[in-house]
Amino acid sequence: MVAAMLITPLLFVFYVTGVVHIQQTILELAINFLFFSFLFISASVSMSFWHQPTYYWKDYKAAGISMGVFLYISSAAYLVDTVLASKNYCCQPKQTNDSTA
Q: In this structure, how many other beta carbons lie within 10 angstroms of the beta carbon of residue 83?
């Protein structure tokens, strides 16, 4: 989650400044899928833990459930971004050399 909080704003700054060649590399696809996987696993662990809380953690059940829901929403956003990144990577225009000898 810390890596996602560091890398995502960095990629966003690149997109805003017009550096779009990063979107055509496999790096963005791999990062998005990795973040989707980690956030989805974290959400699943959070929700399974808070499904049967012990007496000690009973006061924090609402916070744990809201964290799990937030993680599911974040993982869904990264899944959509992964699909869009795969579309950009797979369907990018072919590089042609138009120079004549």
A: 14
d(CA 49, CA 43) in angstroms, rounded, equals: 10
Task: Provide CB contacts within 8 A for 23, sequence distance 6+.
Answer: 15, 85, 88, 89
Q: What is the pLDDT of residues 8-43, one digit of tens each?
A: 888 888 888 887 777 777 888 888 899 999 999 999
Phi, psi of 13, rounded to the nearest 5 degrees? -65, -40
Q: How long is the chain?
A: 101
| Torsion, Cα of 31, 90, 20, 82 (10° steps) | -30
Distance separating alpha carbons of residues 11 and 29, to the nearest angstrom: 12
Q: Is 18 left (phi over 0), alpha (psi -120 to 50) or beta?
A: left
Quick: pLDDT tens for 33-78: 999 999 999 999 888 877 665 666 667 777 888 888 999 999 999 9
Domain boundaries, the chain: 2-90
